[in-house]
Amino acid sequence: MTPSLLATTLTRQDGDADVNDRHDLMHRNLMATMLFSAGLPMILGGDEPGRSQGDDNNDCCQDNEISWFDWDAVDHEMLAFTRDLLTLRQENPALRPNWFRQSPDAGTGDTVRVLQADAEKFSDADWDDVDAQAMAFILEHVGADAFASLLNAGPKEVEFTIPSSPNQEWELATSSDPGQRVSSSGSTLPVRDGSFTLLRSRAWRSGLTGGRVPRP
């Protein structure tokens, strides 16, 4: 299924702001994790502005409101969020890895590390833990900005330890949580329940420019 269809598992309700906010949060989560995954994102036209097809994942035999595109119902905030994600993906090779590598000297410039919320390496046991609901992906590409993708699928806020190294600073790139904030002096970051946050470490700050002229 595509992002907007999956997000309809929590149906919007007229006049219920809490349910609708949760629905929108889920939609942003799904779109972000789809676009920042390895490979080619498979997105159906209409996912960007929140078109749900009336919760029908097989509308090819429909010629009615289910399959029609209602331009008056476009979610402009979701459309703008998706555009920002696409720009990030296009401009940053670390966000579109060709395949997963655990070491930068493995023949490619892409490195993907998987960590627990406390910044410890994700172990085989962690992968088998059905109760594990928080994880971080460190996405790196030689000579380019690095990113930390923080995922919290649990029902409570999670405090993430932000990985650090000399001269490395993290800033907020995007988040499914509109209220997410990042402190430049903090070593931990609270991530709200059921949300996604992406941090960026500028290559010119972290010394990963590979000899290129630092960007302004």
From TrEMBL:
Organism of this sequence: Cryobacterium shii
Sequence segments annotated as region (Disordered): 169-193
Protein name per the record: Glycogen debranching enzyme GlgX
Residue stretches spanning the membrane: none
Start-end of Polar residues biased regions: 169-188
PANTHER family given in the database record: GLYCOGEN DEBRANCHING ENZYME
